[in-house]
Specification:
heterotrimer; A mainly alpha; B alpha/beta; C alpha/beta; B: alpha/beta; D-Maltodextrin-Binding Protein, domain 2; ten-stranded mixed β-sheet; C: alpha/beta; 2 domains; four-stranded antiparallel β-sheet; 9 helices; 10 strands
Chain lengths: ~240, ~280, ~240
């Protein structure tokens, strides 16, 4: 088995073109990966918002003993290593483990749960910060206008809608580019739990640079989109 | 609590539950099969071929979980898979001895090779593996190992042992702790020697630029066995699916698929189907 | 006929380890504007917030038209019958009209009805030309008019105002006080007005409670208080020689 000379630029260049081709021609396998990535991460982060924002609103105004501790835990969540979450969750989900009967191991649902856990502290933390920028009397004024609890929650969220968008983007950005927990919980199974990050690792190992680059391009585009939206949101927040 | 455990009543109960499992073995989802296999199998590309074909043939949902050999055997030893496809014969024998599997059948083999720089400073071209490794050690030529407890790494260490060398800690011996592709990349970077399986090598050959210097030594054969996980020990195993896969992969249909793999792209089979043969037969040849 | 619309009996507030409001009686009748005046830290805002049902009481009751808050009336229903305005406008992102209509929208008043009522009150407060202006583009005085309009449009039974003009410059404040006095004339609601400017209180209120260290020292029409301050402390607070 001899080795032909390997022209670096030619090979990489070709890989790049093949990547573009895969994306443009709608190669089913490539698009399945993209679809699953979006499906899993968007669902997880939306759920995280639904739970995290009300919790953040409550935490920002509640006055109880353990509040500081709870806030500290949320902030720790910012630095929570994804692989640790993945490890703990996958151990719980083992067949012979406590949650084995749920048969969640290597399913998109397991990944969604993991990503939900990872993004929740980020969203709670950023919601609290956003609310603390508001005038503390605002909640009082809402009450004074006859707003119910639910209406107050809605109005406050509306006031901080741009910071909430930022929180969502932060949460989404974190989970869509995560690979450790995703591999452990999902197993990188084609069509279901193979997402952009796990696919890149696998394709690189297999020497399929065209595929790996295609996924890399998409991931970069997604991240770019996120950053773009974040920037726009921060800029428009300047003008009330 | 432990005193209680030694009581004869408890012992009897434990014994009884030991007998019962076969009757109560219930896979969580009988339509799914979890195949545990190694990164080498995936990296060479044959895994996808086998799983797609088996999924079609059986109608089961195939979940092929890939990790290093050591990890795979451990997962199997916890009953977290239904069947194993691995290539670490010594570790496998130990695994079977623990009662983790119901059978162990030879499926196929491929071989390992030693690659290195064209210039070959240690002059190992054409030698037998043991001699080649000895020369490398004497010449203190750079050698890059996977160092990740994978099947390949375990075999590499066994070869060093055979040659009577302890490479760990030596200045010329580097470990990446990573997969085959990356390890060969590093070897290429240092223009050093490396130990790899032929299949993965062929996939990355052009990029690596290091020719095969040592091959066709029976000591370098990498033999794959298939082992269904034991439902008596692990009640949640999908035993029928595990057995179905094992039977299929050694059947003429499975064996043909293995033989065809790689022929189109590389001009020769990457794996040699060898169901029905025994390890001894292979190693003698 | 002239019984109290809002009656507080023996209310006190315990906050941060001290009694910020001593057990106090306070009453407001329909059409009356009652002022609360006192030095900084006297507990004016505490009294107002307690009366408005924003603070838990450590004693006493509040009664609105004979219904006891907490017993016959839930805090939520109580808050639907009053309105409040504070020193800062506390407006939400959006237009002036959106903000003024807010209370009505919360009460699920229909769009057409809302529009009419909002238009009327905007005209009264002379900001109808600002209806579609985003709140980031209006002046401080205009913002406070918006906040006032927001409260008035609800036609509350009791209106609470906590130093509403304090953050405005002198000329704006004078103008607003004058207009506000006009607006209040002829309305049937009870108004509680906290101020740190006695002249302002005197101009608007038919009665003024002098508050010091959580206790009401005198509660009479402002002219009476000026003529006959009850104690030297009262005189000191309102700034005259006893």
């Amino acid at each position: 088995m001899g080795t032909g000379s390997w022209d670096y630029w030619a090979e990489i260049g070709q890989g790049f073109m093949e990547a573009a081709l895969l994306l443009v021609t709608g190669d089913p396998e490539t698009w399945a990966v993209i679809r699953q990535s979006l499906l899993i991460s968007v669902t997880a982060t939306l759920a995280s918002m639904a739970v995290g924002v009300p919790l953040g609103v409550w935490l920002a105004s509640a006055k109880f003993r353990g509040r500081g501790v709870l806030l500290a835990i949320c902030n720790t969540g910012f630095g929570l290593p994804p692989v640790v979450v993945g490890l703990i969750l996958s151990i719980l989900l083992l067949r012979h483990g406590p949650l084995g009967a749920l048969n969640l191991r290597f399913t998109p649902s397991a990944m969604m749960i993991g990503q939900f856990i990872l993004s929740l502290p980020i969203i709670i933390g950023l919601t609290v910060v956003a609310l603390q920028q508001l005038n503390p009397k605002l909640r009082l004024q809402m009450m004074a206008l006859g707003a119910s609890r639910g209406q107050t929650l809605w109005l406050l969220c509306r006031e901080i809608r741009l910071p909430l968008l930022v929180a969502y983007m932060a949460g989404f950005g974190a989970v869509v580019s995560e690979v450790g927990a995703s591999q452990m919980l999902g197993g990188n199974l084609p069509g279901t739990t193979r997402v952009l990050t796990t696919a890149i690792v696998m394709e690189t190992g297999m020497g399929h640079y065209d595929r790996a680059m295609a996924y890399g391009i998409v991931l970069l585009l997604l991240v770019g989109l996120v950053v773009g939206l974040l920037t726009w949101a921060q800029q428009s927040d300047g003008h009330r | 609590m432990f005193r209680f455990a030694r009581s004869p009543v408890v012992a009897a109960l434990v014994a009884l539950t030991g007998l019962a499992p076969a009757a109560i073995a219930q896979p969580v989802n009988p339509q799914e099969i979890v195949i545990l296999t190694t990164t080498t199998t995936q990296d060479s590309g044959i895994l996808r071929i086998l799983t797609d074909a088996f999924a079609k043939r059986s109608g089961l949902t195939v979940k092929a979980i890939v990790a290093g050999s050591g990890d795979i055997l451990k997962q199997g030893a916890r009953g977290e898979g239904d069947v194993l496809l691995t290539h670490s014969p010594d570790a496998e024998k130990g695994w079977m001895a623990e009662g983790n599997g119901t059978s162990r059948r030879l499926v196929m083999y491929h071989d390992f090779v030693i690659i290195g720089p064209e210039a070959d400073p240690a002059k190992i071209r054409g030698l037998k593996a043991s001699d080649a490794l000895r020369r490398i050690a004497e010449a203190k030529a750079p050698f890059v190992s996977r160092g990740d407890q994978s099947g390949t790494h375990v075999r590499e260490l066994a070869m060093w042992k055979r040659a009577g060398i302890e490479p760990k800690g030596q200045s010329w011996y580097r470990e990446t702790g990573q997969g085959q592709g990356l390890t060969m990349d590093v070897a290429s970077q240092f223009q050093g020697y490396a130990f790899t399986d032929r299949g993965t090598y062929l996939v990355h050959a052009k990029r690596i630029g290091l020719p095969i210097l040592v091959e066709n030594d029976s000591a370098l054969y990498n033999i794959y066995h298939v082992m269904p996980v034991n439902p008596a020990k692990f009640p949640k195993v999908n035993a029928s699916a595990g057995n179905a896969f094992a039977d299929w992969v050694v059947s003429p249909e499975g064996q043909n698929l293995i033989a065809e793999f790689g022929k189109a792209q590389y001009g020769r089979s990457l794996f040699v189907p060898a169901a029905g043969m025994s390890e001894q037969e292979l190693l003698v040849n | 006929m002239n019984e109290a619309l809002l009656q507080a009996s023996g209310i006190s507030v315990y906050r941060n380890g001290r009694l910020t409001l001593q057990p106090t009686d306070f009453a407001v009748r329909a059409g009356e504007v009652v002022g609360i005046y006192g030095p900084n830290g006297a507990g004016k805002s505490t009294l107002l917030q307690a009366l408005a049902g924003f603070l838990p009481l450590s004693s006493g009751t509040i009664t609105l038209r004979g219904q006891v808050l907490g017993r016959d009336l839930t805090p939520f229903s109580y808050h639907r019958r009053i309105a409040a305005m504070f020193q800062e406008p506390l407006l939400l992102r959006g237009t002036v009209a959106y903000n003024v209509a807010l209370g009505l929208a919360l009460r699920r008043i229909g769009k057409a009805d809302r529009k009419a009522r909002v238009q009327a009150v905007l005209e009264q407060l002379k900001i109808d030309h600002l209806a579609d202006r985003p709140i980031g583009m209006i002046s401080g005085g205009e913002a406070q008019r918006t906040s006032l309009a927001r409260a008035l449009v609800l036609d509350p039974e009791v209106l609470f105002l906590d130093e509403p003009f304090a953050a405005l410059d002198q000329p704006t404040r004078r103008r607003l006080v004058r207009e506000f006095a006009e607006l209040l004339r002829g309305r049937r609601m009870a108004t509680v007005f906290v101020s740190h400017d006695f002249a302002e209180a005197a101009a608007l209120c038919s009665r003024c409670a002098i508050l010091d260290a959580g206790a009401i020292l005198q509660d009479e029409p402002p002219t009476r208080v000026l003529e006959r301050p009850g104690t030297s402390r009262v005189a000191e607070i309102i700034g005259i020689e006893a």
